[in-house]
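Example 3.2
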Amino acid sequence: MSENTDDGPKYTITLNNKQYALNEPFRSSIEERAEREYAGNGMLSYWWKVADPEQYADGAWEQTVHDVGDPVLVIETQGTQVPWENLDQLEVEVDFLDFFTLSKEDENSDATHSNGMKSVEPERDDNDEIVEGRTHFPHIPRGYEDMPYPESDRMDKIPPKVERAGDKPELVQWVPNHPDITHTWSTGEAMIPVASRVEWNVQKRADQPRIFDRKENSHDHWESMLQMHGCEVIKRITPEQSVPSRNVDTRSDEQRYREGIAGGNNWHV
């Protein structure tokens, strides 16, 4: 059963123009996800709340992803498992040069058509000059390479746990940032135990695309989970009744124009 107030169920989300009440079985499944993510930490506690600006100090509300009324699982934990976004990540920039696209007419020329490399005569001594675009190592490779420390302007970032390299070198790349993913629940292992507080917003998590499944809408996926747990549809919403996000400007063009003039910030002819 979902917790109810005088105005109806306390925890709700809106998917596919339907408002669902988050019942106890569904919320328990989210709590179990949190327990799995932070398994092994020495301390873990969590509780549910409905997001509201009054819960935050001045300016802190604007730093969250929440809208008023969103159901949020608050997690406090301590250990080496920390929110993924709190780990420092090494950003590698690689310039991919096309070394193998010489056209027939360029094969005997002094320079390539695209990558700036010059042809080198077989009798030329490498010591004569440094050839731009060299494709071999200037030194014999060692069994390992030094990794630079990630550059970051966030002093609260935590170094990830050091892992022993295998016998064979491997190319490892961090999961790239997705422009439409702004709220993640994933965790990683830090070098040292850390006290963490994180807030999982169920509505915002459901609103984001599923980057590993392009055939299925994220709302469809979450709606199927709600139905599987027996969550009740308490309201059907027409497009005109949809509640806009706080970041969406709902003013008409005329209203924006008039408010701009009144505010003295816009010029007009």
